[in-house]
Amino acid sequence: MKLDRWLLTGILGSQIISAASLAAEDADTIDALKRQIQDLDQKVRVLERKQELERETATEKAKSAPSVSLGANGFSVRSADSNFVFKVRGYIQGDGRFYADEEAANDTFLIRRARPIFEGTVYEKFDFRLMLDFASGINSSAVNNGILQDAYLNARFLPEFQVQIGKFKEPVGLERLQSGANLLFIERGYPTQLVPNRDVGVQLQGDLLAGLLRYEAGVFNGVADGGSGDVDASDDEKDLAGRLFARPFKNSDTDALRELGLGVAGTWGKQDGSGMLGKYKSPGQQQFFSYRSGAGTAAAPNVVADGDHWRISPQFYYYLGSFGLFGEYVISDQSVRRDAGTSSSAWVENTAWQVSASYVLTGEENSWKGFTPKRAFNPAEGGWGAWEIAARVGQLEVDDAAFPLFADPATSASAASSWGVGLNWYLNKSVKFNFDYEQTDFDGGTSGLLEEGEHVFLTRAQISF
Amino acid sequence: MKLNRHLSLASALLALILTVSPSPAQAKDITLLNVSYDPTRELYTEFNAAFARHWKEKTGDTVNINQSHGGSGKQARSVIDGLQADVVTLALAYDVEALHEKGRLIPKDWQRRLPDNSAPYTSTIVFLVRKGNPKGIKDWDDLVRPGVSIVTPNPKTSGGARWNYLAAWAYAKRKFNGDEVQIKDFIARLFKNVPVLDTGARGATTTFVQRGIGDVFISWENEAFLALKEYGADKFEIVAPSLSILAEPPVTWVDRVVKKRGTETLAKAYLEYLYTPEGQEIAGRHFYRPRLPEVAARYKDRFVDIPMVTIDEEFGGWSKAQPLHFGDGGVFDQVFKP
Q: Does the N terminus or the C terminus of chain A have fewer Cβ atoms within 10 A?
């Protein structure tokens, strides 16, 4: 019995010892496994965090990378801080002119404007613009020319103080200052013909009173009414030009007045020579007035600019919802001289005015800088673009003092009075069709055009980007 | 000549335009940008609100203060590259000095324009460990043991990390009696235990606190206290090493920007407000050590009295320490092998 007990005790004891050692072994294993799991857990966490940091770094890098965009506003490249910007834009206008009168110019298609635009900013404050034009000349018979339209630098030292140098539009005519791509009618109205177009010079400009008042004042070579120039070939004198334009309610809560703009602009200078005299055209771009141009003899008198030339132009625009209205009045007062063996001089004061109204039928917000259709043309989805109707009246009067000594009353009219209506279809922000009818009556003159007047139907297809 | 008649007309029109152009409203909504380093988000959120109230009461003007935060060195570079900061409140004087050296945005004597070398509050470097301190970390020696995982940001981009590095260097310098070989080896072993280098202190806090990486976080003292406050004292604890470094985060207005923006008076007043009892109290509340004695006294019990070296006495100032240790090819580049 004792032996059995001892044997049993021995067996049990050995089993207990073996179980205890097994338990100790398991605990060690479990501890080791726990440590391994913890190590692996840390490794996984570290790897995940590294990935997270790499993603953050990539996002940061993306923020500092230049951005490239292509869209309705053209192609642009912009540095991450926006201090350097380069844009390529442009627009093309294909026009049709159809005259109702036999005596008028030929019906024609033409490329009215084909303008690539390169513009941008360097070092945050220095803007530049280069715009060329490869379109037909000023009328349907002129050959295509490459013309430098704009080439300037604008240093934006402060919003209130900027200096613009180069070739650009003189700050005078309201409609002249509107981009050719945003015109309400296919051709600008009469006031534009009495104000300078593009000229070379230096201009100070800026926005005052939190943008309520804009000023522009510059010194330019000087150009004829409606003309552009690249060099001052006629004299040493320079023209001064300036404009003040206020939007007094721009920042107010009164919706009805917010888009009211009022301004006055003018030029003064001394101009000499035949290149400094204007020639005036109808809405159909037919010339109805020019000064005498000959050899300077009694049989063929010649008229030239002869000293002071000043212009003044009050102007306004007003927009409310889909409705728009603008108008301007220009006086161009110029000293002229007739050379015909002997010389005689006179002051000739020509005037022009225009009032234009428009209404966007499809409900877009009308504005001086144009608008974007709410729904682009896409019939499958019910989009028909934006439709706008327009009407205008205008007149250009030549001073009686011009006749007969300085202008031939047979070939030049003393006044042109026009009215016109238009329909504009904006398929999208880039594509637009214009359809205008303009009717003009002339005072004076014996040519077929001047006696019969002008009845012209104008069309335009425009793409801008 | 009809000029006179028309000039009269023009004058009348001009008068009309100027008459109907109202003067702009006396709008005094002024915006200020404070470009700061990583851990000051909470401090300046409260301080900005207090200053805006103070300024409104004093002048009637409304001031909106925008904040930008990131690694101190990176923030300084952004300002030099054109970020329009009216004021900078960075982690160390070297980064502010760069605005003068590299950008000529502030004058050379910028540090003398405000009291206490333009550092309105101070801090130091401590260890944040997990509750119970499972790795038994008590001093810098414990960080270089094999198997200890350390979280600290990259000294190349983070001001806080540069203070961390220099505090470790100061400790090793004493331990090895200035033997540079052994000091470098100590620093190398320390960074060998760093698995992830964040670019800024806040990112490193995220790594340690939220992502659960590492056994110890070498941290700004204020950031360590913030972690305790935000995530619970039951999860972490602060260990004060036997030696640390006095961190003096400086502030200044950026002359070139404030002159251009017309915010010079406001920017100066903003920074001067940091030295007032109200500003110092806010700094204390956010675990920065206030300079003003009466405010510092109220927070005395919060902060451990750690022996500290200073950047000027120990390293000859930032102008020497920066290129030697953190410049391209400097000591850090030599010892850190990722």
A: N
